[in-house]
Specification:
The protein is an alpha/beta fold and about 170 residues long. It has helices at about 10-25, 35, 45-60, 75-85, 100-110, 120-130, 150-160; strands at about 1-5, 30, 65-70, 95, 140. The longest helix is centred in the N-terminal third of the chain and has 17 residues, at about 45-60. The two termini are about 20 Å apart.
Length: about 170
Amino acid sequence: MIFGAPGAGKTTVLERTADRLEAEQVTFGALESEQLAWGFPLLAFDRIVEQTAAVLQLQRRGGRRLFLLAVTVEGAAELGSFCSAIPARPLLTVALDARPQTCAARIEAREPESWTGRAELVRRARTIAQAVTQIDAQLRIDTELVDPETAARRVVQALRAAGALKPHDGG
């Protein structure tokens, strides 16, 4: 589970990690929980957790046992809710850190000025970036110091160390 503030690099690290696992022919599923919230109004946090768990359960029925999940959480309690809902073990938590101003700048650079939610997302990114530094994780990566490829390599190494990659899965 990769978590961090909006703009911290969750999507990019998720994509790079997925690319590395695919290159090794590891069977996995990948999901950004924010996709489940999308719409108007945004779904409440507990509904996002519930729907994430349901999607992962369906993925397990499809034969997948390893999941890459990107989530935005605002505190340890929210991370705990996601961790409880994830059907896979072992569970590796990866925090992506970046300074609040960096997260805000990344969002401003990627989102169109015409988007009505842009200012609120920038504001939330600043707040969440601060909060993420206080949440425990098994692996912490500063995305201002580490490029996405290196971050993905560290995630895959941590998955191996945690026993999440089986020998038949490219491990």
